[in-house]
Write a structure and sequence with these properties.
Length: 282
């Protein structure tokens, strides 16, 4: 995996569906990690992590990320209000040195309309699939390139939203890396346990994330790839990640054992019968 090049904090905001893992942010985190960036996901939609949302965000910003991205749930005023509050805290805490980006289904449904409600708070809005778009934003931000005209974005020109062209859907999903669920402060330790990986809790002074699920795996640095116990650390490619996960899936585990392990690693909102059905179909 390349040396860490930038710090990216992704934020899932509180919504009307608490404790659901934001799969889109996990996918974006996986792509960013593959490109060598240090990524953390602050899961403010989880009720299992102690602390008030804005207090947790303030602690997370002590890490001083280069880019902060917030995800909006659609048709939900509480999420829109949360986005305004979160982006405002980022602006007041870190100023213009940190790029503020808003995305998610709540932006994709009405890109210009939602952007208009976030002007002065967000620097850019992302609509459509965000994996490639967000990665391009981070690359250009760190490299000093122009953020104007990036497909799948809405920028601001004198506070007026300007929508760039639509970015085509990703056709080869197998080309994407494995979603970085372990980057979530709400599930990192559970995912590590399920995959049979060595998990390290972060240091007490690590931006207030003590015990939250960040800090690396297998003795690696923050943002490093998962490493199987006793094995060599793999690169960011999907094949290596699958090999690292293999010990947890081998050993003749029964369908019931496998399903139970998956259920244990998922939020309480997951339906056990649905999980079992999927495992049996594999």
């Amino acid at each position: 995996m390349p040396e860490s090049r930038g710090r990216v904090l992704l934020v899932d905001l509180p919504s009307v569906s608490p404790n659901e893992i934001n799969v889109g942010l996990a996918a974006i985190a996986g792509v960013l990690r593959q490109k060598g960036h240090d990524v953390r996901v602050l899961d403010l939609n989880s009720l299992h992590v102690p602390g008030k949302p804005m207090s947790r965000l303030a602690q997370a910003l002590q890490w001083q990320p280069d880019v902060v991205g917030v995800s909006l749930f659609p048709a939900c005023n509480i999420t829109l209000d949360g986005a305004r509050d979160a982006l405002g805290v980022v602006r007041e805490t870190l100023g213009d040195k940190t790029l503020r980006v808003a995305g998610g289904v709540g932006v994709s449904l009405t890109p210009v309309g939602t952007a208009r409600k976030l002007r002065g708070l967000a620097d850019l809005c992302v609509y459509g699939e965000g994996e490639i778009t967000f990665a391009e934003i981070v690359e250009k931000r760190l490299g000093g390139g122009s953020l104007s005209g990036i497909p799948g974005t809405v920028r601001f020109d004198n506070d007026a939203p300007v929508q760039a062209e639509w970015r085509p859907f990703i056709k080869d999903l197998d080309a994407l890396p494995w979603p970085a669920y372990d980057a979530f402060d709400s599930v990192g330790e559970k995912i590590a346990e399920y995959l049979g990986l060595e998990y390290q809790k972060p240091a007490e002074d690590d931006g207030g994330f003590g015990g939250g699920g960040f800090g690396g795996f297998g003795g690696g640095e923050q943002g490093g790839e998962p490493q199987a116990e006793g094995g060599e650390q793999e690169g960011g490619e999907q094949e290596g990640q699958e090999e690292a996960a293999a010990p947890a899936m081998s050993g003749g585990s029964s369908t019931d054992d496998m399903a139970s392990a998956i259920v244990d690693a998922l939020p309480p909102s997951a339906d056990e019968q649905d999980v079992r059905s999927v495992v049996e179909a594999l």
